[in-house]
Amino acid sequence: MAVPKRKMSRSNTRTRRSQWKASRPVLVTCPRCRDPKLPHVACPTCGTYNNRQVITPAS
């Protein structure tokens, strides 16, 4: 197992961690109600997926 020989400085650690960024979730419009939703997920507004009613709407 690889073990570092020396302690990494705060500057080096923070520089490395600065590249860890959260990405914005991709949203698509629901074909039935035109609200934004995650792709490949049932619409939380109208409850449809692939033009079928799969869940009861959370309204």
TrEMBL record:
Residues 1-19 have a biased composition (Basic residues). It comes from the Bacteria. Residues 1-21 are annotated as: Disordered. Keywords: Ribonucleoprotein, Ribosomal protein. This is Large ribosomal subunit protein bL32. Transmembrane segments: none annotated. Belongs to the bacterial ribosomal protein bL32 family. Pfam families: Ribosomal_L32p (PF01783). GO terms for cellular component: ribosome.
